[in-house]
Amino acid sequence: MSKANTAVAPKENTRGRVLFASMIGTTVEFFDFYAYATASVLVFPALFFPNATTINAILSSFAIFGVAFIARPLGSVVFGHYGDKLGRKGTLVASLLLMGISTFLIGFLPPAQGMWTVLAPTALVLLRFAQGLALGGEWSGAALLATENAPKNKRAIYGTFPQLGAPVGFIIANLMFVLLQTSLTPEQFMAWGWRIPFYFSAVMVVIGLWVRLKLVESLSFQKVISQDKVLKSPFKATMRHHWRPVVAGTFIMVATYVLFYLMTSFTLTYGTAPATEEAARAAAEAKGKVFDAAGFVPGLGIDRPVFLTMLIIGVVFFGIFTVASGPLAEKFGRRKFLIWVTVAILIFGAGWTLFFGPGQAAAMVGLIVGFTLMGLTFGPMAAYLPELFPSNVRYTGSAIAYNMSSVIGAAPASFVAIALWNAGGGNTVGVGIYLAIGAVLTLVALFMTRDTSDVDMEEFVE
User: Fold this and answer.
1) What whole-number distance in Å separates Cα of residue 200 and Cα of residue 172?
2) Residue 251 has what pLDDT?
3) The Major facilitator superfamily (MFS) profile domain covers which part of the protein (predicted)?
């Protein structure tokens, strides 16, 4: 045993390597994910559903967007299995490769024309599914990389670094789309410009792989190995003995997921939709489509590059308050802190139409408020969810909870919000109610869960 401990000591990851590796990997993964999300609003409806009405094309694009969320729980089981059996490092490298390759290939898909009328959307579905598989395993591994290597009383602070990958990846992806849209003609952007972010992902993947290949396993997992506590089937053990924290963790994340996809995918669709029937008619004619007056639903009518810039400003607040949430979660405890943030999300949902309805200035305030709340609720999750599970099922348990929540909270969010906006004839009050319901579900889960700030992650093995 003493010999084993002597061998382990020099293999500890340095603080800088842990923080950078946990953030760069999730930055790459979320960049890839958001590149698709942005393209699903700006490009894919016209590219892959050219014969559908405007609203049906958008709904079809978001339906494929949701395919990834169906794949994510499967990815959590597959990657969680190997992460708890073979280690965090190799699993993180595999998830990054899968995400990068599938995203890179999306950039080569042709428009849905001729022989590709069916094949192109089908290929998009398959690649989107692969993205979901990859992200299903990525988040939990990155969260464990940060928190299992964190000093005592700093897990929530270290845990904010993989969470930073979300706003950083979003900003990079959307800055690229803004620059491309402002520097290219609409014809050039639709023909080839939209593909550049997908090709660029290959460069980011290489950077992420270079950093992650230098990692060593965390002491928590090394202890699982040394105590011979590696399980034959982490999934079975998780669902048999730890199903309660899986259920709790799933609903703890619901409000976070609903909020995020309303603030990004939905607001981009709503904010850039024509505000008047005349503007909608002109936009349809410019695309060579027949205008469907019966299907017209007014939005804010903000130019896409302008609204993307507004989103980027909002996401800066997301990043700032993700970092701020770590020390606050350490000071007040994860559970207590998240309860107050979730109450604020509920109030924000109740007042949704005060921000999204009056115009551009109000929408900008709404984006700042919404993304601030997003940072505060998202930041502590990388510590809270893993702390619910022992080391030998920690990858599997936290991954399943996180990704099952994506099925409930994230997958339907954009689709449901667009349907509610459509049913309301342009009024978004239903969207706010939808967010408030998500917050209530999260509050119930938080009140039924204990605080985990005092958990010793290295000693917590079963």
Assistant:
1) 11
2) 96
3) 18-453
